């Protein structure tokens, strides 16, 4: 524990689900955590949980599809905590649907909130990450599904994030910055609601996971991110970790 004491983390999409789980896990390791998202109330709820555990937290309203909002977000975190040591790009608008159905607008939102926002945030934080900073970006096993029907637009956005992450790891490694990617299955509110509404489909989904369960947002996903951000993972960069109970085969 306390492997991240003295560090400051910025987590986008931190108001619920995976982002919240990551924020709580980083807090448990001693990091100060800024959570960013479009709506204040859920961000404040996450911050309240962090403070209840004795941690320091900051809620920052930020629409990651807007370049100016990203710059303002980073400035707010720096004003509050002085630096940014860990960046977690979790926020994503999900463009699902078959290729003939996905609108240009939905596809653009997926790209703007995913790879473009990821690139902008990495660039904005890069000067402060030098000398030991860590970036963790989120991808998806949608890119390696046996049946990609309905997932092409989403997978394209997430694979673009993986490409940008690999480039950042190579380009910024000499500056002491590590960049890795996780591809999680997690029991977010959205997935939990779907499983409750479609029990038969949910059972089939679980049977396709070798560990026969969906990951917990904090204990399974968040703790892995905390480890990635720690010195214990100090020689790992440019990698994608599938946190999906063994479901996807990345090859």
Automatic annotation (TrEMBL):
<feature type="domain" description="Ketoreductase">
    <location>
        <begin position="7"/>
        <end position="185"/>
    </location>
</feature>
<dbReference type="GO" id="GO:0016491">
    <property type="term" value="F:oxidoreductase activity"/>
</dbReference>
<keyword id="KW-0560">Oxidoreductase</keyword>
<dbReference type="InterPro" id="IPR057326">
    <property type="entry name" value="KR_dom"/>
</dbReference>
<dbReference type="InterPro" id="IPR020904">
    <property type="entry name" value="Sc_DH/Rdtase_CS"/>
</dbReference>
<dbReference type="InterPro" id="IPR002347">
    <property type="entry name" value="SDR_fam"/>
</dbReference>
<dbReference type="Pfam" id="PF13561">
    <property type="entry name" value="adh_short_C2"/>
</dbReference>
<dbReference type="InterPro" id="IPR036291">
    <property type="entry name" value="NAD(P)-bd_dom_sf"/>
</dbReference>
<comment type="similarity">
    <text>Belongs to the short-chain dehydrogenases/reductases (SDR) family.</text>
</comment>
<protein>
    <submittedName>
        <fullName>3-oxoacyl-ACP reductase</fullName>
    </submittedName>
</protein>
